[in-house]
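Q: Predict the assembly, please.
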Amino acid sequence: MTKTHYFYIGYGLLCLLGITSPLLNPWEGATTVWDRLYLKFYGVSPYGGFSLLSFLFYSIIYTGFLYQFQLFLTDYLSGRFYYTAIRYQSLARWFIHLGWQMSYKAACFLVVLATVTVLIGLALGDSPELTVSVLSNLTVIQLLIQFLLNGWLQLMNGLMIVFITAWVFKEPSYNLIAMGLLTIAALPVLNAGGWLPAGLNSTAYLSGQWEDLILITMKLVVYLLIQLVVIAVLFKRKNIAFY
Amino acid sequence: MLKEILQEIRSKLSPKFFLSWLSLTAVLISFAVYRSRSYELRDSLDFFTFTIGSILPILFPIVSVLVLTISFAADIHHRFLTYTRMRRPIIETLNINFWANLVLTFIFFFCLIISLFIFAYYIEPLLGIANFNPAGYGLTTDNIAEDTYMRHTFTQFLRYGTLTYGIVYALWVGLNAGLFAAIGFVLVLLLRNRYLALSLPFVIYVVGIFTLSALGAEIYRPSYTIFPFDRIQSPIWTALIPFTILSVIVAGSLIYIKRNITKLGNLT
Amino acid sequence: MKLIEVVNVSKSFKGIQIFNQANAVFEQGNIYGILGPNGSGKSVLFKLICGFIKPDQGDIIIHPSYRSRRADFPQNFGIIIDRPGYAAGLTGFENLKRWAEIRNQIKDEDIKRTMRVVGLDPDARQKMKSYSLGMKQKIAFAQAIMENQQVLILDEPFNAMDVDSVKVLRELLIKYKQEGRTIILTSHNEEDIELLCDQVYQIRSHKLVPVNTMAKV
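A: Predicted assembly structure:
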């Protein structure tokens, strides 16, 4: 077993701790597995009522995923990058290859997370009924769209921000600052109105209204497009100097 | 060796150091001033904790490491320290860097907290920025002082004077900042991946807060023992437990480094 | 055939001029040497040729058979640029395999053969973080030639290598030249330049000046 395996095991155990801990519930009353999914990934609420534990679990899950990519990138974008890039012949081709890998991993991660949460819920006696009892006008479909689709878009946003920082700034101090900012950007005190692409996949953002859900999706898509344009501009400038 | 440590400290007390301290102080105060318009606070203590308690508790380990450990990491990465070995025993060099790192990080955070304290207690009352409404909290001039003594951990020291509390609390935060910088220092020596070494103090901090909270041991979580503003007062000794444990781990790591100095790849 | 043309290239970094209207032509099937004092821009020239950085003015023209329109980097180029780059936690073979898997043109046996040619044991379990500088340089050399790259851009290829290895690799480069490959290299060792190079360019006054290889430079 390598050090990377220990890292994944530790990360997995933390996720399990959060999913199973009875203390990680913003409020009581969960009866179905979907309630568990809603409450465990509550994150940060734009409507008031901040739970440190929910915020931390959210950070560990999502920013933790980004952190792993950041660790990979800070090592990858070094002197050996020349020998990788020359084999792809274009930065776009290399980036698409990397992007596909990361988007696939992000999607799998979310599916596994949702599945494990539901299974743990069933094992702990939650009802499999297709309702979200803690928020009466919220449907399971909306919850799953928020968790899976918006969750994936949120992760992709984070991955792009991490990539841009690592590409532009070679010094680890900037990557460290980026990690800090990505963590606190989700806080309602900084992200009033939810206009930053941070924390938007928190289930706390769900109100049961389709308009709110679609608005989150659109914000994340727009930000993602902006980030891709920034990356295209950076690639066009072509200033590859890693050592 | 004390002379060399002081020399190292003096050399690192650069304009950049002061500018960083000033910038962070300005950002925290400005943010608090901006946010305080939407809140009703009890008193200057509330304003002081309000200023600190927004983003600093989360970013604390990152800032601790950014003060000086990051430049030490660069010295290792660029093999500057390797070439000091011909001029001075490496153990001495590491000792000097360790203590300079710790003292400067301590100074940075001590000055930060004291500045925020002075602003909250002595400057803000002159400017009248915050909205104070102690009556809204059921407090009167008779009971407000007693309330402050029991409000947060360390406010017990308010009994001995406001300045006493300010200095003691600033010392405590400074010590913890030095500790996290020391954790980063040790990791930079032990780990090849520079970014991993510098980010692990933050990871340990966040994971520590989460794990202890999820297991019901909230009063020992690092964010609470250093910034005890989101919970009722705990005895001061509870704050010393995580500090002591981490200090013991750092001390143990330093002993390990000293015993295995010849095997450390980062110093060759 | 003109393989690479440096046409009126100017480049500066943070106000420091590296090249000013520099010109050079690299023909196929020759070995070229680039000479210059430290910091004169040898690595910058290689990065410009490989497309990792863009000139402020001028152009680097690569023959169409080595660079398609949409590509950022030329194809079939083997390079050694700057310091050796590698994944420290992997063995030499594993590093080479990772690079080879990108284009999937060669098999494990080809990688192992290349490692033996440069003087490395392909079955060694040692991770690259424990390699000496010379061994890391050999890995860099191996990745530059393992896929039968026809154009080699080599920045100090013999750096930190033992005498025997240098001799073997010099002979290899001469053999490659006889096969029609093009090699551009830098070296601080006059002997490398005199033994290998058909043509030498010296970086002088921010330009690439052709010099006689047999004359002392």
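Chain A touches chain C through 24 residues (CB under 8 Å). The helical segments of chain A are 3-20, 33-40, 52-76, 81-88, 91-123, 140-168, 172-184, 210-237.
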